[in-house]
Every structure is written in C-alpha cells, then in structure tokens.
Amino acid sequence: MNSSWSDAWRLLRIPFSLFLMPIFWFALSAAPEVSAGRAVAVFLILHLLVYPASNGYNSYYDRDEGSIGGLKHPPKVTQTLYWLVLIFDVLAVALSALLSWLFAGMVLLYLLVSKAYSYEGIRLKKYPLLSTVVVVIFQGAFTFAMVQVGSGVPEDRILSTNNLLLALVSSLFLCGSYPLTQVYQHEEDSRRGDETLSLKLGLWGTFIFAGLSLLVAAGVLFYTYWRRDEPWHMLFFLLGTGPVLLVFSRWLYQVKQSLAAANYENTMRMNKVSSLCMSFSFFIILLWQLWRG
C-alpha cells in the first residue's frame, strides 16, 4: 500500500469511530428483543463504514494541520481519500439494503447530512447553532432510531413515548459532549472561519454548557427509567459512569489552574473515558434485560 492510500486509511479514523458506541448499546438496551445477527451487522456497518466515511469526508474538506479527533498528527489529504470515502459510502448503503430499505434510506440520509456539515458549498460547520442542532439530532436521536430499525425493532416500539424519550436523551448527551470535543481547536477553527459552538461560548462557557446539558440528559434518562419501572437501570448507569464525573471534575480543575489544560490529550482522555463508561453501562443494562427475559 503506497503512502497515499495509507494516509487515506488513517484519516478515516476507524478506531475513533468506536467513541460513538454508546448510542448503539443505548438503543439496544432500550429494546433488547432483536436479532443478534442483525444487531452485529448494524454495528459493523455504522462503525466500520458509515462513521469512518464521515470522518474521512470531514478531513478531506478541513485539511487540518493541527490535531483532530483520534489523530494528534494527521497526514496530508490527497484525492485518494475522496475516492476511499465514496467506496465506503457505497458499501454502507448497499449492505444496509440487505437488512431493510428503510435502514438503507436512513444510512444514506445520515451520510448526506454529514457531508453537508463539511462540504465547502454548504459547510454547516460554519454556523454554530445550526451545526450543533444537526449533530445532536443525527448522531443522537436519529442514530438511536436507525440502530433499532436496522436491528429489527417493531415500528410501534420505536415510536412509543418512552422510547422517544430515550432517543431524546441520546441527543441531550451529545449536546453536552459535542462542544467539549472542540475546545482545543479554537485557534484552527477561527483561522478557517468555522464559528463553532465552543468558540462562540468560550472556554468556560463550553464547560458550563456541557455540564448543564449532561445534567439535564441524566435527569430525563432517570425520569424515563422511572416511567418504564426500571430502577436497576438507574443504579447501573450511576455506577458505570462514576469515572466520567471524576475525570470531568479533574479536567475542570486543571483548566482552572491553567488554560493550557484544554488541550488535545485531555479532550481525547475525556472522550475515551465517557465513551467506554457509557458503553459499559448500557451494555450491562442490555445483559440485565436479556437475563431477565
């Protein structure tokens, strides 16, 4: 594999796509009566094709010189990346169609929206509020529903009030975590003219906004678990995500001591801990559901 293809593969950032796992496990834990085979297929399509294609397309138009999610020193962008992204797009939609046409349509819509986020002719990324709304809806509630559709959850179950409340929770969690991923990119975003939400809020505003959003998300989550008569799920979530609160508090203290602590390394640590802990929590909830039958 020549350097052009090797660099293109790196810019797909497939390992970084695994940070979006919590939505998958959350969606399944909300409706565990699904086909295991279909669920595995959905996981592979999303995390090995859809998310990497979105990452690669974003890199193609951003042409970052500084650190990006999952790559501290990104390689130079070449035309090879563009064609590799298109290959991943086609594979994602084609394989999704084998599960259901509705799932394939949702995957296609997700891919198109992710391109509108970065494409220079539209570039939703330039608009702080609009881009945030788009990201939290499509990476949150829309993906939550997409996982359930692909995994074979009945339509009436997907559209039930409690399930829609959990879909809302997924967007609220994204609303809190998304601006935090932008705190170390203020300088580069300003240079490109991308007025991100974090840049608009400022450093401390971003942390306050994130904390409030995550608090509201947890509140709605516990309310919905109460409506569903699932008190054990609250306990599993609290125990599983305890480290997230500790890491977030420690990071906040470090930033208070020195603004330089709002850097790539700490952002990725926060991202990794929150992703793994939330995935673990929802995975345990899923196992509990399956064990109870």
Automatic annotation (TrEMBL):
It holds the Pfam family UbiA. It is found in: Membrane. It is a multi-pass membrane protein. GO terms for cellular component: membrane. It comes from the Bacteria. InterPro entries: UbiA_prenyltransferase. GO terms for molecular function: transferase activity, transferring alkyl or aryl (other than methyl) groups. The keyword Transmembrane helix applies. Its main location: membrane. The chain crosses the membrane at residues 12-28, 40-60, 80-113, 129-151, 163-180, 201-226, 232-253, 273-291. Keywords: Membrane, Transferase, Transmembrane, Transmembrane helix. This is Prenyltransferase.
